[in-house]
Amino acid sequence: MNDETNFFAKMKWTSEKLIEYGFSELGDKYSYQTFIANGAFVLQVLISKDGVYTNVYDPKNDFEYVLHKIPEAEGKFVGKIREEYLEILNQIRVQCFVPDVFKSFEAQAIMSYASEKYASKPEYLWNKLPEAAVLRNPNSAKWFAIFMRIDANKLGLLSQTNIEIIDLKANPDNVLKLIDNVKIFPGYHMNKKHWITICLNNSVHISDILTFVDESYILSQKS
To answer: Each residue of 139-170: pLDDT tens digit?
Structure first.
C-alpha cells in the first residue's frame, strides 16, 4: 500500500467524521473503499494513528495498480486514475480532517478554554498562511485571539527556532507596562497600541494567559 501520510500533514482525523464519510471501523483502524475509473479499479483507504495508506487494485484480477504514483507515467488512462485518486483523497482531507498545527500545551489549553467558555473555535482563514488561526467573538464577529507559528527572531529574540505565539487585545493604557520583549511583546502584525504577543513556550503561566484571553474577549465585544 502507498503511504499518503504526508498528504495529510498538520491535519488530524476525527472518528465521527470518518464514519460519517463512509469509513468502516476495524478495531483501531478505519477503512474505506470505492470504485474508480468507471468501476475498473477499487481505491482502498486505510487510516490509523500510524498514518494514511492507500491501495488501488483491479478487483477482477486482484493486482495492485501503481502507475498513478509514478510521476513519469503519462497517458490518458493513468491521468484519469491519478485525477480521481487525488480528488477522493482531497475530499477525505476536507471532510474528515481538521487542522493540527498548534501543539503546545498553552495553545491546546487556550483553544479548549475558548471553546467551552465562549463557544469560539479556531478558524484557519488563509490558504497561504496555514500556520495561522483566529478565535472570533461570536457576538461581535471580532477576533480576540490570533495563533501563529513564526521564527523567534521575528520578535527580536536571538534564535531562529520556530515557535508558537498568540496575539491578544489589551487595554492601551496597560500595553507598554506589559511588554518586556522577553515573554510579552508588541502585537505581531497587529496594532501595537492595542495588541500584545505572548510566546507559547512555558514562559508565561497558563492561568495568566487565560486572564489575558478573558480581557481580550471583553475588549472585542466593545470594538
So the answer is: 999 999 999 999 999 998 888 899 999 999 99
HEC readout, 91-109: HHHHHHEEECCCCCHHHHH
Q: Please tell me the distance from the alpha carbon of residue 8 to that of residue 97, in angstroms, as a whole number.
A: 8
Q: Domains along the chain? A: 2-99 (3.30.1820), 105-222 (3.90.1150.30)
- In the structure grid, which three cell numbers stand for residue 127, read together? 490558504
Helix pair angle (105-118, 206-222), 10° resolution = 40
- Reference 72, options 82, 64, 58, 63; nearest CA is 82
Residue 218: predicted pLDDT: 96
How many C-beta atoms surround the C-beta of residue 142 within 10 A? 17
Verdict on whether the full-model pTM lies above 0.70: yes
Dihedral angle at the C-alpha atoms of 51, 85, 56, 36, nearest 10 degrees?
140
User: If we measure between CA atoms, which residue out of 82, 107, 88 comes closest to residue 206?
Assistant: 107
Identity (one letter) of the amino acid at 201?
Answer: N
CA–CA dist 122, 112 (Å, integer): 10
pLDDT tier at 80 (50, 70, 90 boundaries)? very high
pLDDT of residue 223: 57
What is the full DSSP assignment across 193-215? Answer: TTEEEEE-SSSS-HHHHHHHHHH
Distance CA 195, CA 207 (A): 19
